[in-house]
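Long-time lurker. I teach an intro course on protein structure, and each term I like to show students one example going from raw sequence to a predicted 3D structure in token notation. This year I'd like something fresh instead of my usual example. Would anyone be willing to generate the tokens for the chain below so I can use it in lecture? Attribution to the forum is fine with me.
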Amino acid sequence: MAQTALIVDDEQDIANVIAQIVRSRGFEPRILHEGKAALQWARDHLPDLLLLDLMLPDVDGYSVCRQLKLDRVTNQIAIVMVTGLGRPEDRVHGLEVGANEYVTKPFSFDQLSSALDRAIEWRENLLQSGAHGEVNFEMRSDTKLLVELNQMLSSILLHSGLSEMDASRLIMAVREMGTNAMEWGHRKQADMLITVTYRIDPKKVEIIVRDTGPGFDRSNLPHAASPEDPAAHMELRNALGLRPGGFGILMTRGLVDEMYYNQKGNEVRLVKYVTASGGEANSPGSDG
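-- Reply from a regular --
Happy to contribute to a lecture. Here you go:
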């Protein structure tokens, strides 16, 4: 069966050009011109790929993308935004609501084809991993955006299989790690981007928080609390202009079942198990 690509654009000529390109890639295109109709069609038919304009006559493409990515039935659809909105903040907003790729008009064949390659690869990797869904968000280092992200995650986690308490703990952990990334990884530089990836499979929920800072040595964190002397860091944090606290890493280890940093120290993976042998989650606080 041929893979399907839903094209949502109110300009027929552009929609036809996009349809030719996706057809050359082996997809069967379907064209719609309004956001509400696209939402319903996507839910009914689950296309493999969605090419989405942002300026639609009834509802904007950001809203369409956000709704599809927050729905576990549709969040495996690879979404490529194809739009005339070319400002950096427009692109960032597109990634904030979960788009996989962002292409501005006018585009070349190679530009759109490359974006399709990346979106298709994301979907194939997701399906091969056995995960039930994955959503990627990018956001500026702004605590208000972190609050909005946690509200979105709350909606997703309601359908993840986690208990309400475990979902709340995971959301709290994301808030702590996101704030750490903004304050320590990015040193409060608001234009630097943080990527948050949510992935769910039948046994666990994973959330990966990654900043674009230089990373850090976890064995030497003078700004953070340590089990040996949990208050010794406070004077240093005050001198650095950081918020009171610094207990985020210690707290997070107790909120999740597993916690891993990458070697560079600019990415943390948080794992919460839905079920485990004996009906209990794995022992929290793993760190690798």
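Some talking points for your students: The two ends are 43 Å apart (CA to CA). Residues 64 and 225 are 42 Å apart (CA to CA).
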